[in-house]
Amino acid sequence: MIAFAGCSSAPSPAATPAELLVGEDCPDLVAGGTQVHFADGHGASLTAVTLGTGKTGVVLAHMSDGDVCGWLAYALQLAKGGYRAMVFYFHGYGTSSAGTDDSSLDGDVVAAAGYLRGHGVETIALVGASMGGTATVAAATELSPPPAVAISLSAPKFYQGVDALTAAGKLTVPVLYAVGQGDTDFTGQTQALYDATPASTGRTILIAPTTAHGTGMVGAPGSQVRDAMDKALRDHAPVAG
User: Fold this and answer.
1) Domains, the chain, ranges and CATH?
2) How far is CA 180 from CA 190, 215, 218, in A?
């Protein structure tokens, strides 16, 4: 389906492969999802796909050198488990429009969460990888009400004007950081984010025995990082009802 924020109309038919806006490189993974558009609040139009119908929503933010397909297999599993998962394109990526001077990566995450809340989601979890992980940490300090939990994988401390290191010191919600032990450009940065996060949040760090980066660490069910993510969601943002 294709849906537009702020518009009401009869249900749209399922999108054909030619109509896919998000996930066109992995159509089998989005076949049962709903294609949506929403504004970032600064003039940019963002595109996303939502999967599932639950009252607990999970926003999944992609990497700079990846796309939404990197998250979609995990999003499908979340949807099957009762969550409503959203995978979106940041402004300037994929089928989202270019940003304005006031657009920001963290603002995009906040806008994505706002869309879900405006469509029946009651509890929000924020999850991001690499660039998306940086944006997720910052967004977790800006979203009101705050998310139930934030999960950040292989995130740099700073990216495209987003200062996750400063934001980490302002976090008030549980956060899971994960990074590959062999992902040497990011292990120290992830440790720094963890160290900057107040202990009162219930912060957790996982340094996994892998060289994989970002969504590459999630893998199939049974992977160490995936298990930690699933536990963080169960503990802090369980499926409602």
Assistant:
1) 2-236 (3.40.50.1820)
2) 10, 11, 11
